[in-house]
Amino acid sequence: MNAHRHNPLRLKSSAMAGGAVVMTVVVAVGSVAYLQHQTDGLLAATIALLVCLLGVMTARLVGLLLPQRFVHGQGILLSMLLRMAIPLTLCIVALLNKSQFLQFGFAYYLLVFYQLTLVVDVCWSITRLKQPLVN
């Protein structure tokens, strides 16, 4: 009855499959962006991806800096807020400034990459919760 035993090979194959899905989505969105608006569309998609990654990294960094007692409660809510607030704030700023990037599909790429980074981050968090604690 060792169904919950730590299996590094399974984690490695899951990470590789997840990486393949991420790369497929990134390449597909980049291709669509380039076909629609050439270099400007590709730049808008790249900036959208980087903004979403910045939100995830900021949320992770804050999660690491919080005291251990906040990690499972308020820390999760705070990291979700940061993960969402950074891309949303930039999108609102682009809208208020009537940025050219909006014409090149920036908001759409931001939505796609936000969903992608959210799924990957949540899957990564769940995988980490399932791993045995090392003393």
Q: Mind explaining what this structure looks like?
A:
Helix 1 crosses helix 2 and helix 2 runs antiparallel to helix 3. The chain is mostly helical. The chain starts with 7 loop residues before the first helix and ends in a 5-residue tail after the last helix. It has three helices and no strands. The protein has one domain (18-121). It has helices at 8-65, 74-96, 106-130. It is flat.
The number of strands is 0
Oligomer: single chain
Instruction: Bin the strand percentage.
Output: under 5%
Helical percent range?
Answer: over 70%
How widely separated are the two ends? 24 Å
Q: What brief labels describe this structure?
A:
135 residues; mainly alpha; 3 helices; 79% helix; 0% strand; flat
What is the structure about, briefly put?
This protein has helices spanning 8-65, 74-96, 106-130. It has 135 residues and is an all-alpha fold.
List the helices and strands and how they pair.
Blueprint: H1 8-65, H2 74-96, H3 106-130
